[in-house]
Automatic annotation (TrEMBL), chain A:
It comes from the Eukaryota. Residues 349-715 form the NAA35-like TPR repeats domain. GO terms for cellular component: NatC complex. The keyword Manganese does not apply. Its main location: cytoplasm. Pfam families: Mak10, TPR_NAA35. Belongs to the MAK10 family. It is found in: Cytoplasm. This is Uncharacterized protein. Residues 34-198 form the NAA35-like N-terminal domain. The keyword Cytoplasm applies. InterPro entries: NAA35-like_N, Naa35_N, TPR_NAA35.
Automatic annotation (TrEMBL), chain B:
This is N-alpha-acetyltransferase 30. It comes from Candida verbasci. Belongs to the acetyltransferase family. MAK3 subfamily. The keyword Transferase applies. The keyword Oxidoreductase does not apply. Pfam families: Acetyltransf_1. Keywords: Acyltransferase, Transferase. InterPro entries: Acyl_CoA_acyltransferase, GNAT_dom, NAA30-like.
Length: 779, 194
């Protein structure tokens, strides 16, 4: 392309220009062919998003704008119909941003929004639609006020709300993943208190009501639009200031009732259709992409439908109302766990939360001061003790008064051990904090966080285990089992938490669809192995820790009291024992019962369901309907694939990591077997699986009844019931797939080799995220 | 056209290594990618790959008019200084020439060269979750989905990260691996220079 000469450019005002022609051509002399000149920090990532002059896909400078778009005058009076449509469009832009696209192609494409923000950036006291580059003067009639009063309060409130979301996003969400912000360096009215915004909206509503006759039937629509904006901003004003009665059985009043009002207002708005013909020409454009310093590549403006907009808005308010009130109802740690896992994480993984609600939840849950739901009594540090003892029972000696065991040591030893103890407690707190941050994350990020937690918890276990052993063996301090062994209670909790994370990370791979069918057997086999370890640990160690604590109170302390002579020491111990009998023993019994009746049972039923799935998979492989070896043209070995898939677990010492050879031996059972013995084995396996599924369904129904009757460990209307219903549905689906396969086997019993010629597997979404539907269909 | 760079001919289609001195090839490659991939790339990205690793850019030409109908662009680098990682950055086949196994041949050429010439420990790439064709292709070679990346692409689609493990290092946590000999060599050189 020929460049125009400097003269051709007809530059008249030369005094502000510097001629760099010579410097430029001198500098490029050093560039040799095929050499890229770049600064060191400019790497591939920067390159992928770099602007490239004159490339229409990358250069925002050559975006073409119409005259209407360039010279759009925000201060021009507009009719009420136009104002309503602008506000409707802005709601669509807001939701579009939350669902998919960046700010410059949604909200910031609105000239009213960009003008207010630009003016505010230059002068924080100026919130106006006046663009000094456009000379305009207008009469101050009702339509002028509709723009400069009504639309302005709407736009200002919208900007404030966006600022709030960006604040949440900065610390609690993942940029370019959960949200694509690209804020164009605006600060979104950070310095204006949200209360001022709410007052302004109220004033505007009052003003509209006082001028109602001017607006006919449009009054209610415009007021609803403003009210919804008010409710959105109310979230910011209430979320951290509303008191939650966390873990307290005091009166529980309904919170965030404004969310219900918001939903009812949105429902009213549902009749309002969008009519973009009524939007002022040029009000929404790519102007901002050209006008402001812009690190991003050109992007088309996008749109979403009104139904999605309304539903998303309703979802925001109803979700917030639900989770704040559920949090307020929590009176026990088991309820908190039920709340977090089944009523936050579970619906989030099903995309039932807006990204805003997800971020807001994290903000609401763990505050900057580490308090939980803003509770004065419950901080993260206290919660750590509560969570640990929720599994291993109250009265954990090492958590009670550690310093008391150090009296027999010299001051150096004392300081060293105390330092180690505090370090270990901090590590435990970090591990628990890490786990608590998983709940609000998107389902992919959540897996990455869990993967990290495997390493984290393994390291924590490595620190705590020798520490607890040392303290017990050398100082005789810590919980004791009935057998006289040290209980290593904290390590036992850590080991349990680690194994739970391992199982969750493994089985959630079905949800993220990272597993190919040839890996299914490996995943269920290892899942079953982990569950077996979890169950054994709960039964052998955790239950015995609690029984040991009960034994300590019922046997050891009374013996101590007997041996003591009358005096203040004996009186003090008697008082402690009385508290133990009245308070601690019932708590320990409650924990014991919950672990035995629910927790262990739930793992056992899951293990049985997985075993049924494994039996089914073995038969499918025996009949050549599935193949659990590597892909046929693979350029790598099955061993490499095995270890890569198992990499997250491979460095974990316990439970023992199964070597490839062990898996190879296990896999032998799946080898095709189409003779009579194969027939008999397949029939036997399917019969076993069918029997197992009958038990699984009964046991899950029984667990569901347990949950429905238990008001202490599960929150009201908890989605844990839906979780188990889905598992029951999965078991039923597997049962029907087994029936179908049994019939096929029956029909081909004389020559099983025909089965794979006539049928193939078909994998579709299952009833529960852990179990894809593997059915057999005709070829 | 530089026939020294002809690597092979499969089904009458010639497969070449990219000619770094041929500006027309560069232009054709960037045009082919720009038209058929959803992500827009700057000229820098093309230069980054093609200049640093011209030996890992393979092209297929139509023997009738010698226009480029398929391209694969890759790189190899040390990952965390402990393992050698191949990365397949872009793979595009002109739609008119699809379903002829060209993509498969290009991927195979790349993997074999990386394994033979540079002893890579693993090869990695990302592809859209909804790109069933690409997933099928790579997975047939043994690539494993190791991660799902939420809204990874500019079009907000999720991606899978795929890895083909070729040595034990590919499945060992980097914290447990010694520095790669190339990194040790680099450090030694740096030390000598200082």
């Amino acid at each position: 392309m020929d460049l125009p000469s400097i003269k051709d450019l007809q530059i008249n005002n030369e005094e502000n220009l510097i001629d760099i022609t010579t410097t430029f051509f001198d500098s490029i002399k050093s560039i040799t062919n095929n050499k890229v000149v770049k600064s060191a920090p400019f790497e591939l990532l920067e390159g992928t998003r770099a602007l490239e002059v004159l490339n229409p896909r990358l250069d925002t400078g050559i975006i073409e704008l119409s005259k209407d778009e360039t010279l759009f005058d925000c201060s021009k009076p507009q009719s009420i119909d136009s104002i309503i449509q602008i506000q409707l469009k802005l709601y669509k832009c807001l939701i579009n941003w939350l669902e998919k696209d960046s700010l410059p192609v949604t909200i910031l494409s609105c000239r009213y929004v960009s003008t207010i923000l630009e003016n505010y950036l230059k002068n924080p006291t100026e919130l106006s639609f006046i663009d000094t580059r456009i000379n305009s003067k207008h009469e101050e009639g009702i339509e002028f006020l509709l723009v400069h009063k009504v639309l302005k309060s709407f736009v200002v409130a919208l900007c404030k709300f966006i600022g709030f979301i960006i604040n949440i996003s900065n610390s609690l969400l993942y940029e370019e993943e959960d949200l694509i912000t690209r804020n164009m360096n605006f600060n979104f009215l950070q310095t204006i208190p949200v209360e001022n915004i709410l007052d302004e909206l109220n004033d505007t509503i009052e003003w509209i009501l006082s001028n109602e006759t001017e607006f006919d039937q449009n009054t209610s629509t415009i007021i609803i639009q403003l009210k919804i904006m008010k409710y959105l901003n109310t979230i910011e004003s209430k979320i951290l200031s509303t008191k939650i009665n966390f873990l307290q059985e005091s009166d529980k009043f309904e919170l965030f009732t404004f969310c219900k009002d918001a939903v009812s207002e949105i429902e009213k708005l549902k009749g309002k259709e969008s009519d973009e013909n009524l939007l002022p020409v040029g009000a929404f454009s790519k102007f901002i992409q050209v006008d402001l310093p812009n690190r991003n590549i050109p992007a088309e403006l996008t749109d979403i439908d009104l139904e999605t907009t309304y539903n998303h808005l309703i979802n925001i308010f109803s979700t917030i109302h639900t989770f704040t009130n559920q949090a307020n109802q929590i009176i026990a740690i088991n309820q908190l766990q039920d709340f977090l896992y089944y009523n936050i994480k579970y619906p989030i993984s099903d995309s039932k939360f807006s990204v805003f609600s997800r971020g807001l939840f994290q903000l609401f849950f763990i505050r900057d001061d580490k308090s939980i739901f803003g509770s004065h009594e419950m901080t993260l540090t206290n919660l750590v003790v509560e969570l640990v003892e929720n599994l291993i029972g109250k009265n954990t000696i090492i958590l009670l008064n550690f310093e008391s065991c150090l009296s027999q040591l010299n001051s150096t030893q004392k300081a060293e051990l105390l330092k180690l103890y505090n370090q270990n407690l901090n590590d435990l707190e970090s591990g628990i904090y890490h786990n608590l941050c998983v709940y609000g994350a998107n389902f992919c990020r959540s897996q990455q966080l869990i993967s990290k937690s495997l390493e984290l918890w393994d390291t924590i276990q490595v620190s705590w285990e020798p520490f607890e052993f040392h303290v017990f063996n050398k100082l005789q301090f810590g919980d004791i089992l009935k057998t006289g062994e040290g209980a290593i209670s904290i390590t036992s909790y850590i080991y349990y938490s680690k194994m739970c994370s391992m199982f969750e990370f493994l089985i959630n791979g079905f949800e993220t669809e990272v597993y190919k069918p040839f890996e299914y057997y490996l995943i269920y086999w290892y899942g079953e192995y982990l569950l077996l370890n979890i169950i054994q640990h709960l039964k052998d160690r955790i239950i015995n820790i609690i029984l040991g604590k009960i034994n300590y109170i019922e046997t050891t302390i009374p013996n101590k009291i007997k041996k003591l002579k009358n005096g203040p020491k004996k009186t003090q111990l008697k008082q402690i024992q009385s508290y133990n009998q009245e308070v601690i023993i019932p708590q320990l019994t409650k924990t014991l019962n919950y672990n035995q009746d629910y927790l262990i049972k739930s793992y056992e039923v899951m293990r049985q369901l997985i075993n049924c799935q494994i039996s089914y998979l073995i038969v499918l492989s025996k009949l050549k309907l599935m193949d659990f070896s590597q892909p046929s043209q693979s350029l790598t070995s099955q061993e490499h694939l095995y270890y890569l898939r198992m990499k997250p677990y491979s460095s974990i010492g316990i439970p023992e990591f199964p070597k490839f050879e062990q898996f190879q031996k296990i896999l032998k059972i799946t080898e095709p077997q189409l003779d009579f013995n194969g027939l008999m084995k397949s029939i036997e396996l399917l019969a076993k699986a069918k029997n197992g599924l009958g038990d699984v369904i009964k046991d899950y129904e029984s667990l569901t009844r347990y949950i429905q009757n238990d008001k202490h460990n599960f929150i009201k209307d908890s989605l844990v019931v839906t979780w188990y219903q889905q598992l029951i549905e999965s078991a039923k689906l597997l049962d029907s797939n087994i029936d179908k396969l049994s019939k096929i086997i029956q029909a081909h019993k004389n020559d099983l080799s025909n089965v794979s010629n006539s049928y193939k597997n078909e994998i579709t979404k299952g009833k529960h995220k852990y179990f894809p539907n593997i059915s057999i269909v005709n070829i | 056209m530089n026939d020294d760079l002809l690597i092979t001919t499969i089904n009458d289609l010639p497969y070449y290594q990219f000619d770094i001195n041929n500006q027309l090839e560069f232009k054709q490659i960037s045009q082919l990618i720009s038209i058929h991939l959803s992500e827009p790339y700057s000229i820098y990205v093309y230069w980054y790959f093609l200049n640093n690793w011209p030996n890992y850019c393979f092209i297929v030409k139509d023997p009738k008019n010698y226009s480029i109908i398929g391209v694969i662009i890759s790189k190899i680098e040390l990952h965390r200084n402990v393992r050698y990682r191949g990365y397949i950055g872009m793979l595009v086949i002109d739609p008119t020439y699809r379903k002829q196994g060209i993509a498969k041949n290009l991927v195979k050429l790349t993997i074999e060269k990386m394994e033979k010439d540079d002893l890579v420990d693993e090869i990695m790439l990302e592809t859209e979750v909804s790109n069933i064709g690409a997933l099928k292709l790579y997975e047939s070679f043994g690539f494993l989905r190791t991660k799902r990346l939420f809204r990874y692409y500019l079009n907000t689609h999720d991606a899978f990260r795929l890895i083909l493990p070729l040595s034990n290092k590919a499945h060992s946590r980097y914290a447990f691996l010694p520095l790669h000999p190339k990194e040790l060599e680099r450090q030694k050189l740096e030390l000598n220079q200082n």
